[in-house]
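Q: Hand in one record:
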Amino acid sequence: MTAADRLMALESLDAESLCARAETALGALVEVMNRETTYLRAGHVREATALTGEKTQLAQDYVTLARAIQRAAPRLKAEAPIRIDALRRGHEALATQMAENLRVLATARTVTENLLSDVARAAGNTAKPKTYGAAGQSPKPSAESMKGLSINRPNIPK
C-alpha cells in the first residue's frame, strides 16, 4: 500500500474514528517527547537516545493523520466540530512541547560539546612544556606532544 493509498484510506474513515486515531497518535507523541525531555534534563542521554526510533515513528504517524484531517477538514468540521477543536488545542500543545524539547536538546548538545572541548584542552595542557628556554620564553611544544584525543563510545546509537 502506497502512502497515497494510506492517506486516502484515512480520509475515508468516519469523523469520529479519524479524530480518535489522531488524538491517540498525538497523545503518544507528546508522551514520548515528555519522557525524552525528562531524561535529557536529568542527564540520561542514553535513555533519551533510545526513544529516537519510537519518537520518529509516532511523529510520522501523526503527520500522516494530520494530513488526512487537513484534506478532509470541511467534512470533519461539519461532522465533528468539537473533536476538531480538541485536536487543534492538542496540536498547539504539541507545538509548545516540541519547542521545549528542541531547547533541551540544544542545551544538552552545547553542554556535551563544551565538556569535550574542556577535556581536550585539559589533555593538551598536560603536554605543554612547564619551563623556560634560554631566551626566557616558553619553548614551543613539539609535534610529538600534540596528540589527538580519543573517546571510547561503545553502544551509543548514531
